[in-house]
């Protein structure tokens, strides 16, 4: 439901705009699907999330998704059946204001706000609050902070401090994957590791996955698969990759990853600038459509990758010696003999260079309309 006038702004002008009666205010139920809200909230200066009952926690999840997935930088207000004991949690997920239905608990709310005001501010351990993480300036600060750090230091800070308990590693178990996986194992082998099982991987990749997981003693591998019903409807004959490679990637990679990211604020990748293309200007920390990406190896060279393999005696992907420099699904990967860059063998003969999980097109993470 939209109220007031258009022309919403972000930043320090929000409070002034609201005080003058301007701006769009959107009210959403706590069970709203964040993936369908892009257009509805685009011009909003404030979003009110209604809690039908203090026992219904879906509003907390929605607030976090608006902040971390859609990058909403306006004002968030919690309204409805709320109790003072929830104050600190409301602030932790990014609410700026709370307007409960009950008016007889004003004193209790005042005491609660004094307590959570401390939690809401950046702590001495340098953990960023959700409101801080949602601004571009703070991404710049993080990148500046990490500029002089090596990859292991970046990962350690990300896993143990900045996004502790809310971060995972995404691995393709490809030709360079062992480096970041080995670093993760050195810091915390219980870190969640996501693997997108498209059903189209080389048998050698599946073998390599088992080898690395056992060798590095990784204890939280999460295999993400496409939804069975969606697969039957969208790829009944198994040849979607030939007809529409982007749609195949959306079905088998983009949407499964989007579903798995619930509860996570950041995702570690193994991407590097020397891969070229859109990765040439890759920052260490970036915001994409569904959250934050941490790229600790962004400025590594191919020589550093090879040196790390040798120093730590890491096993190689079985297809490396067969001319494969970048490995994805067998349907869309070929050896890269003859040059063209590390990723020359991906989607050969097409303009496509990325699957979409790091910079999805608008709506790519949302299930398309069924015909």
Could you outline the blueprint of secondary structure elements for this entry?
Elements lengths: L1 E3 L8 H7 L4 E6 L8 H4 L2 E8 L6 H11 L6 E6 L6 H6 L4 E4 L5 H15 L9 H4 L2 H11 L4 H12 L4 E4 L6 H11 L5 E4 L6 H14 L4 E4 L3 H7 L5 H4 L1 H16 L5 E3 L16 E4 L2 E4 L7 H10 L60
Main sheet: strand order: 8-7-6-9-11-10
Low-confidence stretches: 1-12, 116-137, 360-371
Described by strand count, sense and barrel closure, the largest sheet is: 6 strands, mixed
* Span between termini: 28 Å
CATH fold category name of the largest domain: Rossmann fold
Query: Per DSSP, what share of the residues sits in E-state strands of 2 or more residues?
Result: 5-15%
Order of helices and strands: EHEHEHEHEHHHHEHEHEHHHEEEH
What does the average pLDDT come to? 78
């Amino acid at each position: 439901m939209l109220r007031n006038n258009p022309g919403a702004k972000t930043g320090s002008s929000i409070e002034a705009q609201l005080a003058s009666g301007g701006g769009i205010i959107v009210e959403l139920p706590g069970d709203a699907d964040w993936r369908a809200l892009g257009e509805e909230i685009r011009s909003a200066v404030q979003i009110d999330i209604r809690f039908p009952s203090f026992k219904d926690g879906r509003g907390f999840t929605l607030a976090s998704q608006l902040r971390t997935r859609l990058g909403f930088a306006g004002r968030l207000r919690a309204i409805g059946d709320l109790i003072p004991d929830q104050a600190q949690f409301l602030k932790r997920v990014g609410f700026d204001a709370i307007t409960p239905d009950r008016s007889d608990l004003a004193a209790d709310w005042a005491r609660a706000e004094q307590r959570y005001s401390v939690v809401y501010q950046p702590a001495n351990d340098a953990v960023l609050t959700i409101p801080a993480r949602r601004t571009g300036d703070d991404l710049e600060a993080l990148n500046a902070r990490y500029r002089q750090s090596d990859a292991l230091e970046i990962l350690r800070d990300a896993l143990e401090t900045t996004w502790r308990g809310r971060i995972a590693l995404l691995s393709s178990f490809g030709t360079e994957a062992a480096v970041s996986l080995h670093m993760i194992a050195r810091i915390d082998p219980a870190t969640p590791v996501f693997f997108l099982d498209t059903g189209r991987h080389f048998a050698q990749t599946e073998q390599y996955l088992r080898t690395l997981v056992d060798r590095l003693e990784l204890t939280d591998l999460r295999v993400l698969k496409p939804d069975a019903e969606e697969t039957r409807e969208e790829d009944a004959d198994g040849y979607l990759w030939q007809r529409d490679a982007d749609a195949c990637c959306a079905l088998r990679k983009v949407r499964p990853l989007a579903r798995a990211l619930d509860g996570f604020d950041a995702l570690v990748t193994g991407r590097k600038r020397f891969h070229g293309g859109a990765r040439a200007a890759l920052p260490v920390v970036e915001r994409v459509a569904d959250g934050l990406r941490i790229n600790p190896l962004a400025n590594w060279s191919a020589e550093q990758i090879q040196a790390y393999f040798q120093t730590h005696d890491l096993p190689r992907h079985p297809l490396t010696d067969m001319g494969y420099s970048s490995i994805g699904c067998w349907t869309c990967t070929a050896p890269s003999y003859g040059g063209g860059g590390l990723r020359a063998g991906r989607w050969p003969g097409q303009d496509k260079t990325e699957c979409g999980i790091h910079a999805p097109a608008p709506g790519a993470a949302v299930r398309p309309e069924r015909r």
